[in-house]
Fold this protein.
Amino acid sequence: MEDLLSWIARFSGWLWGIPLITVLLVSGIYMTIKIGFVQFRYPLYIFQQTFGSVFKKPKGEGTVTPFQALTSALSSTVGAANIVGVPAAIMFGGPGAVFWMWVIALIGMALKFSESALAVHYREKNEKGEFVGGPMYYMTKGLGMKWLGIWFSFALMLELIPSIMVQGNSLASTVEESFNIPALWTGITVAVLVGIVVFGGIKRIGKVTQVFVPFMAFIYVGGALIILFMNLNMLPDFFSLIFSNAFSPAPVIGGFAGAAIVDVIRWGFARGLYSNEAGLGTSPIAHAAAQTDHPIRQAFWAIIGIVVDTLIICTATAFVVLSSGVWMEEGAYENTGALTTIAFSSYFGQAGSILVTLSLIFFVLSTILVVIFYGSKQAEFLFGLKAAYGIQIVYLIAIVFGAVGAAEVIWGLLDIMLAAILLPNIIAILLLSNKVKELNTEFFTSDKYYKKDVGKK
């Protein structure tokens, strides 16, 4: 059994190294060219159409508002990766890894833009009158490859069981460590609270996340901003450290063991993709339910999701960790999971530790909330509406089992199962790239959309 587990760990390490990073990088660059570099050409317009229109009545039809769709999608992506993943990238790849997180975020925007546009274009209404969509629908309706949609759906539905167990475990262990509450109690409490929300469907999830996500991001990023203003003089050094280490092997410093240039890039890319889920096909399931008059308009919200998740929250974590110097202390290499807590504590004392703990609890709780919704949509696609309720119960039970540590044996399988979701989705995006280009051209050349927004005739 131990041989099998070590083989799985080695294989997943290799798979999420050069092979998958190359796939994502090449497909991301290809789609960036295909959509005419939208994320670089129209940043101000995209911001106006997203955060700039939050208080305006949404155009078109849908089940939830575009902002609720974004906060639901962000609930899934903003999680432990933003707090624990960033210091891991710094410790194993060096400060330069942060630069490569930014690069993959900018390129990944094209993939997330494309998959979200396709999800809205090929969406349909379910028995409850709610809009549903995602990779399984555009694989079936856009490509006529129902088998690929079934593969994606089945893989995602199963992958979420160990994923939810891992999230439940990380939440329960954090609560136990900080507040001395037994893991089982935490698991049961979380399962009940999450159950109340998810059984209410995407409308209730949207209402909860539109309050929850800005609140939790405000607390965490707010704490990081206070540290930034306390250390504005360190900002040039922060960027200098990242850029100087991005293209050269990272040196051995204190607790940091050094890294080859390939590791700098690999760790930056891997942690960035883990964080923003670009190309994974999960966020489009949330975006498909949004009120919108055109698929491209909703796809702008997918780009903003990466801005918030990687360019803002991950960068905030990186600044706190690097400016505090904790990454250079002895033993830091062996304790990457606690580095963000230690860094915040070095500035705010016990309050810093509580801030990170509470942020992690909120982040993980919201992630569980939305991934259960994603899983129930797969069951609905495969077996109908009743099956969706059945799998939600399975997921709620998985929270409790995960809380008491039952997931450890299957942790190694998580990355391999993620690849089983990612690859069919990337294949579908590339095969439907002409449709994405067609939708994009229509939006930017029609008098009804872009030209009308900017006052061009």
